[in-house]
Amino acid sequence: MFTGIIEELGEVVSIEKIGDSSRIRLRGPVVCQGARHGDSIAVNGVCLTVVDTPDQLASNSGEFSADVMAETLSRSSLGALGPGSPVNLERAMALGARLGGHLVQGHVDGTATLLNRAPGDLGADGLPRWEVLRFSLPATISRYLVEKGSITVDGISLTVVEAARDTFTVSLIPATLALTTLGAKAVGESVNLEVDVLAKYVERLLADRALPPVPTETAKDAS
User: Fold this and answer.
1) CA-based nearest residue to 170, from 218, 135, 141, 127
2) CA–CA gap between residue 8 and residue 123 (Å, rounded)
3) Which parts of 141-182 fold into alpha helices (H)?
4) Which CATH number covers residue 83?
């Protein structure tokens, strides 16, 4: 489980194709601290399992590797990464730690395309103090988004500003623009989306209420 608060802007070092899957090697000195084989690290919102730790790699320079199966490559934007690509990195949250964003599983529900960027007012350095980004919204997950609700975009916990039928917008502060991949994301590029899992549970529970009750065997009946 993750929080959607990015710890580090890492980088893809190399990608090795292994049949339909890949082994991806990434540089992330912060998330590598104390990393062990089998640990979970979210890469652009995709939960990956650490295969090789820095101690096991020849360079020992804050790098780790993870296997990405064909299913993940086809359902996320990880298949479009290449050496040098920046990536958002977050370690799995520790039990009892502060939940700064929202509950994020690292399971991608779909991908979206950045449609446009609308910069806000400029700061003294001439850079936007904030920016509104509009993304496409797959029909399969549109019903889970609500205004001021939570959405995970490339692993980043964000608040939905506008939730239309086939698009949505988020407003980014300078820190998010500077410390995540969304700061340099170009119009037309893809991102990974994960909706709030609580919305999916509520939908399932409400759907089950419409079904006839399932008979249960009591202890008396069983005897």
Assistant:
1) 135
2) 24
3) 174-179
4) 2.40.30.20
Query: Do residues 124 and 55 both lie within one domain?
Result: no
- Please tell me the predicted confidence (pLDDT) of residue 223: 46
C-alpha neighbours within 13 Å on the C-beta side of residue 196: 19
| Sites in the chain below the pLDDT cut of 70 | 54-60, 127-128, 210-223
Q: Which helix (H) or strand (E) holds 49?
A: strand 46-52
**pLDDT at residue 215, rounded to an integer:** 63
Q: What is the pTM of this model?
A: 0.86
* Domain carrying residue 31: 8-91
Residue 213 belongs to some domain of the structure: no
3-state secondary structure of 196: coil
Is 26:9 a contact under the CB 8 Å cutoff?
Answer: no
Token pair recorded at residue 183 = 């700061």
How far apart CA 5 and CA 104 sit, in angstroms, is 10
Closest CA to 40 of 98, 89, 109: 89
**What is d(CA 153, CA 108) in angstroms, rounded to the nearest whole number?**
10
The C-alpha angle with vertex 220 and arms to 217 and 223, in degrees rounded to 5, equals 95
Q: For the chain, what is the domain count?
A: 2
Give residue-wise pLDDT tens across range 89-114. 999 988 877 778 888 999 999 999 99
Pair (67, 118) in one structural domain = no
Query: Can you tell me whether residue 85 is helix, strand or coil?
Result: coil
